[in-house]
Amino acid sequence: MALLLLNAAVSSAQPRTSKAAIFQESQQNQTTSQEKPPQDKPTDSKKDSKPSDPTTTKLRIHVTATDGKPVGNASVYVRFPVAGGIFHKDKLSELNLKTNEDGSAKVPDIPRGKILIQVVAKGWKTYGKWYDIDSEAITVEIKLEPPAHWY
Predict the structure, then answer these.
(1) CA 92/CA 103 separation, integer angstroms
(2) Which domain CATH number covers 129?
């Protein structure tokens, strides 16, 4: 019984807050946080206007046939060296892409330097060539040739 009286005395000494008061305080905190937009993120109207790093480039690949028609659904492989290989040698990193119906493939930002572009499409001769990329943005035009005719 003494324990019950002690518990009642302690609980009566603490101020009681109702659930409605707590709810109103949380609503006020939310409205004040909603009124102020975050200041650390600038609102930039131009999206992806420049590469974020001056050592990277935006690469766009356009694959066509010899007659100028786009080649859709072609597999495009882009290989470029990245640091961190065995014995401090560069290793090749690879991106695997597909062309859309107009024959173009948009490559994410890649480091400038030598890159290997390979294109494989059904019914066309396989293409592969090393390119030296040194500009901010470049479009590579690739013309696929028909395969050799076997008798």
Answers:
(1) 25
(2) 2.60.40.1120
Instruction: Show the domain range for 96.
Output: 56-144
Ranges of the chain whose pLDDT falls below 50: 1-10, 13, 15, 29-49, 51
Percent of the chain beyond pLDDT 70?
62
With a threshold of 0.70, does the pTM exceed it?
no
Alpha-carbon distance of 70 to 102, in angstroms, equals: 5
**Number of domains the chain contains:** 1
Note whether residue 128 is domain-resident. yes
Nearest to 92 by CA among 59, 116, 119: 116
Residue pair 72/64 in contact by the 8 Å Cβ criterion: no
Q: Which residues pair with 74 in a beta bridge?
A: none
> Which pLDDT tens digit goes with each residue over 69-89?
999 999 999 999 887 767 766
CA dist 18 → 14, 15, 30, 134 (Å): 13, 10, 19, 67
Domain membership flag for residue 51: no
For residue 65, the tally of other CB atoms under 10 A from its CB is 16
